[in-house]
Amino acid sequence: MTNLSITINGIEFRNPILVASGIAGYGTEWDGLCDFEKLGGVVLKGVSREPWAGNAPPRLAETPSGMLNAIGLENVGLDAFLDEKLPALEGLDTVIVANVVGRTVAEYADVCEALDKHDRPAALEVNVSCPNVESSGIAFGTNINTLTEVVSACRAATGKPLWVKLSPGVSDIAPFAATAVDAGADALTVANTIPAMAIDVESRRPVLGNTYGGLSGPAVFPVALRLVHVTAHAVDVPIIASGGAVGWRDAVAFMLTGASLVQMGTVLFSAPAAPEAAVTGLAEYAERTGFKEVSKLVGALINKG
Amino acid sequence: MTNLSITINGIEFRNPILVASGIAGYGTEWDGLCDFEKLGGVVLKGVSREPWAGNAPPRLAETPSGMLNAIGLENVGLDAFLDEKLPALEGLDTVIVANVVGRTVAEYADVCEALDKHDRPAALEVNVSCPNVESSGIAFGTNINTLTEVVSACRAATGKPLWVKLSPGVSDIAPFAATAVDAGADALTVANTIPAMAIDVESRRPVLGNTYGGLSGPAVFPVALRLVHVTAHAVDVPIIASGGAVGWRDAVAFMLTGASLVQMGTVLFSAPAAPEAAVTGLAEYAERTGFKEVSKLVGALINKG
Amino acid sequence: MDPRKKNRGLYECEITEKRRLGPGVFEMTLAPFTADVRAFQFAMVGIPGRGDLLLKRPLCLFDTTPGKEGEIKILVKAAGEGTKALKATPVGTRVEVAGPFGEPRDIPGEHIAVVAGGIGVAGSYLFAKQNAQRISAVYFGSTTRWDDEIYKLLEELGTPARIATDDGTLGRHGPITELLTEADCDAVVACGPPAMLERVYKITAGAGIRAYGSFEARMACGVGACRGCAIPAKPEKASGKEYLMVCEDGPVFAMDVIDWERYRAAGI
Amino acid sequence: MDPRKKNRGLYECEITEKRRLGPGVFEMTLAPFTADVRAFQFAMVGIPGRGDLLLKRPLCLFDTTPGKEGEIKILVKAAGEGTKALKATPVGTRVEVAGPFGEPRDIPGEHIAVVAGGIGVAGSYLFAKQNAQRISAVYFGSTTRWDDEIYKLLEELGTPARIATDDGTLGRHGPITELLTEADCDAVVACGPPAMLERVYKITAGAGIRAYGSFEARMACGVGACRGCAIPAKPEKASGKEYLMVCEDGPVFAMDVIDWERYRAAGI
Ligand SMILES: Cc1cc2nc3c(=O)[nH]c(=O)nc-3n(C[C@H](O)[C@H](O)[C@H](O)COP(=O)(O)OP(=O)(O)OC[C@H]3O[C@@H](n4cnc5c(N)ncnc54)[C@H](O)[C@@H]3O)c2cc1C
Ligand SMILES: Cc1cc2nc3c(=O)[nH]c(=O)nc-3n(C[C@H](O)[C@H](O)[C@H](O)COP(=O)(O)OP(=O)(O)OC[C@H]3O[C@@H](n4cnc5c(N)ncnc54)[C@H](O)[C@@H]3O)c2cc1C
Ligand SMILES: Cc1cc2nc3c(=O)[nH]c(=O)nc-3n(C[C@H](O)[C@H](O)[C@H](O)COP(=O)(O)O)c2cc1C
Ligand SMILES: Cc1cc2nc3c(=O)[nH]c(=O)nc-3n(C[C@H](O)[C@H](O)[C@H](O)COP(=O)(O)O)c2cc1C
Ligand code: FES
Ligand code: FES
């Protein structure tokens, strides 16, 4: 029997498959359709200090082998998250990671500080792709200075493992990865959705209420795979892959490239059973190829030539 | 009858649909399968000063609704291009654009200078996504300084309309667009392929001989569409869209967003008749929606809200 | 677990039957589907064999036979790529179906007018069937005449049926909402295109009749997780919320909860 | 226009017949396809209905009836996603086919041994058929026994057929190349997996026999435009070129032109 468990930042995951943030809501919405106890863990919907109403609809658009979302990080806010959402997961036997969003550095830090006191989230994943309202709306994660600020502030606010979820839309992800680690990240999630757009030619208008949205799903998998490869060569902390994984083959590819954990997101919409199937397929692959521990797959890519 | 013609940089295109560089070879390879005389024009395979052998195979990989290529800009070099390839197009009644590649600024400039003397290419499209061998292999187009250098040098070398084909993998394309225009670009092609990767989990190796390749095809269309939208707001020169267009709907979307011309590439592999069908569909759309001239579609997007 | 969540599930259904019911409209029978279904609930139906179309499509449960040998019927209008592909899918194909989703809302009233515009009949039919005693009439309007079978199905409900077509090929010539102005009812439930819903709202608001509508939105999850299916609400009528989720809070809403201006602007 | 280019075209074919010929291997008849076809030429075949699989698949023209009522037969092995989808495609479906492509190469020799490894028979068969008088024997090896029909087809060629299977279920037990060492021929044409081709090259090079092989590469265009289907060549044997294009210069190459080491490293 293959040992599927992976330990990073002192947290043991029963297997490397997680559900990505924004897909699993607050952990109970998929009850009866996707069994998170069979997975390594779940990253909850991004939480901000105050409740956010989110963007004007439409918030979704389908694209070839992908989708756009412009949810606008709608969430219940920190108080309801602590008082209602986290307690509802008490009986859920899987690793819970909280995802942190903010419009200012202070907001990020406040959320981290409050979550630090709660015993449930095993780690905090900081989404640095939010628009920085103090700096003309540019995403924190696409500027080295604001990335440093936000990660340092979160680091100071929590002793829990700190994951930084990088933005894919940068010229070279390596310096951003190094910056996040220097500022205190214990692991990096690579990466968030790619900025994109859809138009309805009949109405001659953008489809999304927000005009722009983030591209996810299998269409972006080859892009995310390369980003994981680049990041794995740039830093020494564990990497959590996110972007377009739909099955065990993608999970294996991400791990070979250097990811310790693999988040699955969009695929839940087409196949809620996919993460569980990926765990099974991953185990079979490891068995078949003689890996007694899936952790040994991490970075086991053989170079060309 | 709708007027399909578009004039940019003083060049008249019979319609806005072009075939993208690297897809149509040197203009004769698709004979009998795709009729370029029905299209606005063809951008030829990138040409360098000396012949390039290209990358080790495999050079192609299929991905969900997309493909990766790592051809390595294999081409016959300037001499054969001038002596054999351009003369073979003498009878071809469509606009011919040459695509210029190089490893150093001097190489780019030399190719532009030589092509400037030839009367056939109506415009020169400079592919700035090539690795810069004088600067640790980083693509010219992802650094503001090298972009300025290469575009300025090409500008000095030719009086023909100069198109600069931007790289999509930058944090914010707007300053790159502005830089290219300041350095002398007459139009911008937005954009090239997105850096990506594929792995064969059975051999545990990268699929491509070059490890990394460029992602193209419908998967990237939403990303390209946004880049065109951003660029159209950043500069005043005409924009030529490239990335994932497969039919008239995509062509219309690109034009509404601000593109004057639309290049089609990858779709020729799945449907060589697609560009011609896009011309027909575009004409029908314009007719149906009351646009007497397709040129009026350019930038005719209605904003949200 | 919330008992409603216990009722739902993920099904690998087979298309056991398919028949045309109107222009571009077909009925599909899917089995097995063992869950109980309440009117206006919907399922998320995958498009088989189309790796490029990721999202499942939300489709009302038109009819249902629950239990061990359970099956569902859906009514699909070939609108865009996905529903066209579904139309072309042969009997015998397997389709992934998740559901039933949506809040099974109780509509108070003893003389309820059921208004269906076009494919909106897909949701209205089951409501009329499950609440036959309380239905004053079923109003069904479409752009042009559908096939005889659909009118037969409505007749078999045993409730009065009022028919209109925009082109006058059957029943009253014009929008179905014109018939509604003569309706004798204490509540209205409408299912159809946004413009029809808004028209129903205006008519009923003027007459002081409680009106409910079944609303559409683009969906990804169907279960309230992704927050994609937002519909603009009047916060003062929606416990302070700016948006409600069609999948979780709806798809049926009291019409006075909707912020019609922002809804129209969204052009859903 | 080059006359070879005049012969090729883009066809909207219908699948008119499908039958199994071996394990995971099926024959598909496609019509109309009116062009002349030479042995080892191939077509680029689209995967119908699969918007996520963009690239057409290169497939040999197994047999052909040219002219107005023309049709082609292809032999497909369900290998990956696309060929599996093709296998599942029902008769009557329309498929986009482009071709014929590939250099119609003349193989000199009066006693030619034709070697087919597994699905390599798809290309070898038509060559044997078009050059029956010059064929010393057709060697067909596979991992296990195929269906009777394929052996019947080979027999009907009227040339001697030598059979081997890796598992011994038919003919000689072992690789087909072992039979080749006993061959009496002045040239060999081989079509099959890379390892078989290399083995054939070694055997023939040792014996001083001219050998040709039909090579595979991932393709996008099939017409020499994209430069995707490169195969490493010995520049001194290939007019100075480091790479040849399988679609344009091949798929059949004299085996001594190939740079076997770089070919193996590529792991095509
Ligand atoms: C609760 C609910 C119940 C519905 N019941 C039915 C029904 O019983 N029968 C029926 O024919 N239709 C019904 N619809 C509408 C149906 O979901 C859409 O027509 C369908 O999703 C369009 O998909 P497409 O692939 O044809 O169009 P495309 O435009 O290709 O779809 C692209 C994306 O947009 C979404 N989308 C497009 N139009 C709509 C729409 N009007 N509503 C929601 N999503 C949309 C699709 O689901 C898909 O994700 C219902 C919608 C909702 C929200
Ligand atoms: C000139 C030529 C003639 C061929 N003739 C036949 C034939 O007659 N019958 C037959 O069954 N097969 C033939 N092949 C091999 C056939 O093209 C591949 O098996 C097929 O493309 C695999 O596609 P897939 O979707 O099943 O695999 P996937 O792995 O899903 O394909 C992914 C991509 O890789 C390409 N690819 C994968 N394997 C190969 C391969 N071995 N060769 C070329 N491209 C590959 C595919 O075309 C596609 O673009 C031929 C190949 C070439 C080059
Ligand atoms: C509807 C939706 C909502 C999302 N919300 C969040 C979020 O709140 N925080 C975050 O960090 N990422 C969010 N994401 C990004 C995903 O977590 C994931 O990184 C991305 O979708 C790429 O992975 P995938 O292709 O597997 O979906 C969201 C994605 C989607 C599709
Ligand atoms: C096989 C291949 C070769 C290419 N070669 C070149 C090239 O030589 N020069 C260039 O500027 N772009 C090249 N490109 C990029 C295309 O011109 C185009 O910008 C890109 O593929 C995106 O458009 P598409 O999705 O329509 O293909 C190439 C693309 C492909 C797929
Ligand atoms: S569809 Fe996901 S919240 Fe409604
Ligand atoms: S497949 Fe394009 S050059 Fe051979």
Nutshell version of this structure?
The complex is a heterotetramer, with 2 copies of chain A (305 residues) and 2 copies of chain C (268 residues). Chain A is α/β, with parallel strands linked by helices. Chain A has 8 helices and 16 strands.
Please give a structural write-up.
The complex is a heterotetramer, with 2 copies of chain A (about 300 residues) and 2 copies of chain C (about 270 residues). Chain A has one domain (about 5-55, about 75-195, about 220-295): TIM Barrel (Alpha-Beta Barrel). Chain A is about 30% helix and about 20% strand. Chain A has 8 helices and 16 strands. Chain A has helices spanning about 80-85, 105-115, 145-155, 175-180, 220-235, 250-255, 265-270, 275-290, and strands at about 5-10, 10-15, 15-20, 40-45, 60-65, 65-70, 95-100, 125, 160-165, 185-190, 195, 200, 205, 210-215, 240, 260-265. In chain A, helix 6 (about 250-255) links the parallel strand 15 and strand 16. In chain A, helix 2 (about 105-115) packs parallel to helix 3, helix 4 (about 175-180) packs across helix 5 and helix 6 packs across helix 8. The model of chain C has no long low-confidence stretch (mean pLDDT about 95). Chain C has about 270 residues and is α/β, with parallel strands linked by helices. The longest helix of chain C is centred in the last third of the chain and has 14 residues, at about 195-205. In chain C, helix 4 links the parallel strand 9 (about 135-140) and strand 10 (about 160-165). Chain C has helices at about 5, 80-90, 120-130, 150-155, 175-180, 195-205, 260-265, and strands spanning about 10-20, 25-30, 40-45, 55-60, 65, 70-75, 95-100, 110-115, 135-140, 160-165, 170-175, 185-190, 210-215, 230, 245, 250-255. The chains are: A alpha/beta (about 300), C alpha/beta (about 270). Chains in contact: A-B, A-C, A-D, B-C, B-D, C-D. The structure holds flavin-adenine dinucleotide (2 copies), flavin mononucleotide (2 copies) and FE2/S2 (inorganic) cluster (2 copies). One flavin-adenine dinucleotide binds near residues 42, 59, 81, 83 and 216 of chain D.
